[in-house]
Amino acid sequence: MKTLNNHMILFDAECPMCSVYTKAFVKTGMLDNGGRAAYQTMPQNNCPVYDRQRAVNEIALINLDNGEVTYGIKSLFKILGNAWPVFNPLFAFKPFIWLMSKVYAFVSYNRRVIIPPVHEDADFAYKPSFKLHYRIAYLLFAWFCTAFILTRYAHLLVGMVPLGNSYREYLVCGGQIAVQAVVISIYAKDKAWIYLGNMMTISFAGSLLLLVPLAVNHWFQPGPLVYAVCFLCVAGLMFLEHVRRTKLLQLGWIMTISWVSYRIILLILILN
After folding, report:
1. Which of 52, 65, 112, 192 sits at 20 to 30 Å (Cα–Cα) from 136?
2. Phi, psi of 199 (to 5 degrees)
3. Are residues 87 and 169 located together in one domain of the fold?
4. The domain boundary residue, chosen from 56, 84, 114
5. Torsion from C-alpha of 13, 17, 18, 19, nearest 10 degrees
6. E strand or H helix at 71, and its extent?
7. Is 239 part of any domain?
8. Quick check: 74 and 93 in contact, CB under 8 A?
9. How many domains does the chain have?
10. Residue 18's domain spans which residues?
C-alpha cells in the first residue's frame, strides 16, 4: 500500500466518525505520521489558501509541498487512489464522482445527528452548515428503512401482537416524526431539526439491532415470546439513548416523555 506523503487531512475533532476514519488512514499507512489534524486546532494564519468554512463541511486534504487543497469526496478519492491505483479510473468517472459526492454530503451534513458531539468547542468560529434538504432526506431515509425492518419483524411477533397491514409501521414511524415535530416546535423550535435528526438516528439504530433476531429466525424459530423480549430490550436501549441525546441537546425530559407516551398509546391501540 502506497503512502500519500506530505499531505495533511483536516478532520472534525467533534465528530467521532471523522476521527476514526482519518486515524485509520494513518495507521494503515495511507497517510504518513502527522498526516491528520483537527481543523479546530489549526492556527488562523496556517495555510491561508484553504477555505475554512468549506473545510468544516467537506473534509480538506492539503498538499504540504505546493499548498493545493481538495475537499470532500475528492480528498478521500485522492488518498484511496494513491493507495490502490487500480481504482483511479473509477474515481475519475464523472457520474461516479457526482453520485458519491451526494452520498458524502448526505453523511457530512448529518454527521452530528448520526453521532452527536459530547463536547462542542463554543469558542471555535466555524460550525458545520445546515442544509435543510439533506436533513429532510435523512429523515425520510431513516423513516423508510426503520419501517421496512419493523414491518418484517412484526411477523415474528404474531401470537403476541396483531400483524396489521403492510403500511402500519410506516404510519407509526411517520406519526412519531409528526408528533415530535409538533412538540419540539412548541417547546424548543430552534432545535427542531437537530432533535428530529437525533430521534430518527435512534429509531434507525434500533431497527438495525432487530436485524440480529431476524437473521437468527432463518435457522431456528424460538417463538414470539423470545422475539418480544428482544424487541423490549432494544426499546430499552433506545430509551436510554434518547435520554442521553436529549441531555446533550439540553432539552430536559419533555421530549422523552412525549416520545415514550406516543409509543405506549400506539401499543395500546394496536393490542386492542
Report:
1. 52
2. -60, -45
3. no
4. 114
5. 60
6. strand 69-71
7. yes
8. no
9. 2
10. 7-114
